Amino acid sequence: MRSLRHGARSRYLRRVGNSSADHLAVKAAARALGIETHGDASAASRVGSAIHELLTLGGAAGEIRPGVTVEDLFLLMTTVPVDQSTAVRERWIELVLPGIVVR
């Protein structure tokens, strides 16, 4: 895995946070229109496998802290303050990032 600078990791997490906010807004709008949104278990499994592989590669490269799990990242993804401003999400990322990556 190619080494990523702290700035690149931060940009990536910001993109994920903003994308999550957009995704949740679309789901909320669909529910308001009476459209049910359902999870896809096979997609969730594929995402979990992909995150596990990325964590393994990042750990081997010394980029990811030892002990960070797929469940940890899922927890972080579900706690992104998606209903807040971009500035609040960026501050959240600044606070969370040191717990995930090795500087």
Classify the beta-strand content into a percent band.
under 5%
Uncertain residue ranges: none
Total strand segments: 0
Average pLDDT, rounded to a whole number, is 77
Relative helix content: 55-70%
DSSP summary: helix tally: 4
How many structural domains are formed by the residues? 1
So what's the overall shape?
Answer: flat
Top keywords for this entry?
103 residues
What does this structure look like?
The structure is a single chain. With 103 residues, the chain is mainly alpha-helical. The chain has one domain. It has 4 helices and no strands. It has helices spanning 6-32, 41-60, 70-79, 86-96. The longest helix has 27 residues, at 6-32. It starts with 5 loop residues before the first helix and ends in a 7-residue tail after the last helix.
